[in-house]
Amino acid sequence: GDGRRLAEAEVRETLSQAITVPSGELTAAQKKELEELEKKNAEIIAKNKKIQEGDAVAGKANADGVAALKAKDYTTAIAKFGEGVEAVPDFVGSTPIMLNGKMVAHRARAYEKYREGATSTDTAASKVKYEEANKDYDEGLAAFDQAMAVLKNAPAATDPNDQKNRANITLELLTNAMEIHRLKAIGGVDTSKGPQAKAVITDYLALETDPLKKTKAEMILGDILRENGDCDGAIPAYKKILAGSADDPDALAGAGLCLFSVGYGNSDKAQMQEGLNLMTRFSEVAPDTHKLKTSVKDAVDLLKNEQKLAPQKLPARRRT
């Protein structure tokens, strides 16, 4: 402390005194403390080894899964991503990524089965394929739920890069889950998951910042609910789109058909009239090849002939 520089001999002497261990037997308490310390060290070493081994397995399994996915070998991809998740079941940095890959593979395999069923002329065979497709879709959604649970249960991220990565994988998971729900409903494979689809899309809309993608998600929500028979829930989704784009043909048709359905069921002339107005505008702006052209025409004819309603010109709206 006085600024004096020690000679090498003095340094060695000081160190030798500092690390001298008292001679004699350890006490019982000291022996117990030493045993506990050695046990903890062994546990830490074993845990670190297991983590390293798991990371190695997961890394290879993920790479193999990605390669199989690119090669459209969806069965192998599902198995490989599953191996990776089994090796590292709750690491927020990699588990959700592998579960996302597994979900994408299930979705792709399900769509292949759906297409086989849709193009088959054998009704019984088509039904089997639809059931197989729906099982794959559900397994994909199970992977989504598992991934979201890992993200939810992980300690809060403090590093900005970690926060960004978690936000990105969360948005990707929600995007893929939304697509599965859309394929289920639009394909007629399963029209019973409206509430679950709405929850996924609501979470997606809260995270998405791209206005065009948000509008597309609103349209998907409206279509899913309409296909599920929930026109009361679909109407607000379609009207959000029409508020920003008054001549969007898909929203005009969806909202018009739903207003017609709800109004006809409740004998509500005002809703039927509103639906007729929207569907008339749809007929003016939609191409003849639009998938809902026939459905809209049939609904308009019924409202005109049975309900004796006449279309009213829609008020001019400013496009936003």
Protein model, in words:
This protein has 320 residues and is an all-alpha fold. Helices cover 76% and strands 0% of the residues. The chain is built from 12 helices and no strands. It has helices at 8-18, 28-70, 74-87, 95-119, 123-153, 160-186, 194-207, 211-227, 231-244, 249-266, 269-285, 293-305. α8 (211-227) packs antiparallel against α9 (231-244) and α10 (249-266) packs parallel to α12. It is elongated and about 110 Å long.
Write the SSE topology.
Blueprint (H helix, E strand, L loop, with lengths): L7 H11 L9 H43 L3 H14 L7 H25 L3 H31 L6 H27 L7 H14 L3 H17 L3 H14 L4 H18 L2 H17 L7 H13 L15
Helix pairs in contact: 2-3, 2-4, 3-4, 4-5, 4-6, 5-6, 6-7, 6-8, 7-8, 8-9, 8-10, 9-10, 10-11, 10-12, 11-12
Can you give the helix content as a percent range? Answer: over 70%
What's the Cα radius of gyration?
A: 31 Å
The helix/strand series, from N terminus to C terminus, equals HHHHHHHHHHHH
Whole-Å distance between the termini?
Answer: 76 Å
Give me the count of strands.
0
Shape, principal axes of CA atoms: elongated
Query: Percent of residues in beta strands?
Result: under 5%
How many helical elements? 12
Query: Low-confidence segments, ≥5 residues, pLDDT <50?
Result: none
Give a short account of the largest sheet: none
Structural class, by secondary structure, is mainly alpha
Rounded mean pLDDT score: 91
